[in-house]
Amino acid sequence: MFDTILIANRGEIACRVIDTCRRLGVRTVAVHSDVDAQARHVEMADVAVSLGGASPAESYLRGDAIIAAARATGAQAIHPGYGFLSENPDFVEAVEAAGLVFIGPSAKAIRAMGLKDAAKALMAEAGVPVVPGYQGAEQAPDHLAREAEAIGYPVLIKAVAGGGGKGMRLVEAPKAFADALASAQSEARTAFGNAHVLIEKYITSPRHIEVQVFGDGTRAVHLFERDCSLQRRHQKVIEEAPAPGMTAEMRAAMGDAAVRAAEAIGYKGAGTVEFIVDGSDGLHPDGFWFMEMNTRLQVEHPVTEAITGVDLVEWQLRVAAGAPLPCAQEDLTITGHAFEARLYAEDVPAGFLPSTGRLAHLAFPEDARADTGVRSGDAISPHYDPMIAKVIVHGPSRDVALRKLRRALSGTQVAGTVTNLAFLGALARHDGFSRGEVDTGLIGRDLEALTAVPDPAPAAMAQAVLALKGLDRAPRPLDGFALWGPVAQDVTVRIGEDVSTCRVICHAPGEIDVELGGTTVPARFGANGWRYDGQPARDVFVADGRATVFGDPTLVVDHVDPLDVDAGAGASSDLIEAPMPGMVRSVFVEVGQAVTRGDRLAVLEAMKMEHSLLAARDGTVAEVMAAAGTQVEAGAVLIRLEEENA
Ligand code: ADP
Question: Which of 16, 40, 296, 640 is catalytic?
């Protein structure tokens, strides 16, 4: 085993790797960018080396600097985590040339799986079922159109260099083919510098089921499957293991195929073979096809760890240090069921807009595994992925595990930034999902219901109002009321965009009524603390005029000065501001131009995505303050409309 390893990553995965190293007594070296100097992974490691910069290109992608850091600190091996340099064969070669061990597969194995077309051809040769389609070199549009015709519609166009769903287009009928092809190619050229595409039969009612494999460079075993069908725009949201409805026969067939795939490329370390499965009529051993192989540890690996009892990072370290496979296929078994939910800083009602901000408070329930790279007080930086944590639960059956997931999500507390927690909670309660009826279209079909913002619960609302006024402590005789009778005060609050005024009436110590619109919520203090409408108080966090009442769903209430509201209301629709720090991609308007409410005025690129900035009302552009290519801070005014009636 190694004495010291360097982790060429950040965030939750760096922390997760360090956890295992600590357990094995292996010394760890963290690397970090300037903005991550105080990050959790830096605090956890034994030694930390600064890479400088903030963007990945200036820090976590600097292979040379990382190798130099490993040599300077006496590390014998480098763990790449996922993302960044984890699937970069040139980096693997550079690590080995420096006399260090790369904890992962060979450069050759990564290259073999790097392009979808070559990987598919290789897999077909190794006897692994692949999705019927065309993956040839001839790329002329009319040739591709004929191939699509031969495969039979609907078809999927995929960039061979693709990833993250980019460069992928579903085409339902021949007349739509040419346009879809052109747009897939142009997206692929921009994103990957490679416009080549392949064409596949589109599997209707598809499920995404992947198999965890582990190899020693010659032989491989599989650690069963994960179902990652709950996806939004091809991004995984909740994963589980094993897959609902999986039969022993199909599991054996998929496991064999995955092991064949791994052994065909002499795979070493942890890898994932992704299959697309036709779920339209149950699961059948002849209804799965290879999509791609990810040659690294995967984000969702903890659900596999939960059902097998294997620490995959420990296996990675052992095999990289030259040990044989830790066990044989027949030694591996499945115990119970596990789920993982990905908690993100994102504004779901605003269309899952990635968010930034400081995590004023962050806490996880005790009976769940939370893999995280941040602590209370840390910032979600615009430079990296806005994932806050992965919440993982395990139970003896799927039903029990799912109930534990719901509890774990409602017990997860985040204040200071918006999150997708309510969306995850709604998904965990979804009827079809609860029954195990999953497919990749589930979230898209039910998006409206899954993202509906419920009316705030009166009890939670009353608690928030008292917390904002500091009246939710153990009452003291002169708190907020007078001896000679009830005292009332109005409190103006905002939830999202909705501003309302409620009335707090203090009758006696520990006896307060909160009037909210038409309802009155009694707040009473007793032996077990405050009760609101008869219900026990929830955990609440208050800072900077904002109360966050945790639970399912968590309620965020801002205290507003009524004068500010009036002043702000007119101004806000005049100004088009950057919702987060980022780079202005394009500006579509010029001074004097008339615009209509909803028009796209500019595009901001931030958090690896493009965000359209729309006109909030009809009007005329008075000023354009940002040009394409400029970097802007959150809240920077980009465009100003002429005042109404001006
Ligand atoms: P990327 O590498 O861009 O993530 P993948 O090839 O892994 O692309 O596919 C991403 C997702 O697209 C899959 O998880 C699945 O939901 C869907 N998908 C891929 N291929 C097909 C297909 N042939 N039919 C239907 N859906 C597909």
Answer: 296
What pTM does this model have?
0.86
Would you say the CB of residue 234 lies under 6 angstroms from ligand 1? yes
Q: Domain 205-335: give its CATH architecture.
A: 2-Layer Sandwich (3.30)
* Residue among 232, 235, 276, 296 whose CB has most ligand 1 atoms within 8 A, to mutate: 276
In this predicted structure, what is the pLDDT of residue 636? 85
Cis peptide before 553 (omega within 30 of 0): yes
pLDDT band at 479 (very low <50, low <70, confident <90, very high): low
Structure tokens at 67: 């190798």
Q: Which CATH number fits domain 458-564: 2.40.128, 1.20.1410, 2.30.230, 2.60.40?
A: 2.40.128
- Report the CATH superfamily, name and number, of domain 342-453: ATP-grasp fold, B domain (3.30.470.20)
Contact 266, 194 (CB under 8 A): no
User: What would the pLDDT profile of 49-97 be if each residue is shown by its tens digit?
Assistant: 999 999 999 999 999 999 999 999 999 999 999 999 999 999 999 999 9
How far apart, in whole angstroms, are the C-alpha atoms of residue 94 and residue 623?
Answer: 51
**Sequence-ordered list of residues with C-beta below 8 angstroms from that of 560, at least 6 positions apart, any chain:** 492, 493, 494, 499, 545
Q: Is the pLDDT of residue 487 over 90?
A: no
Residue with tokens 């994960």: 226
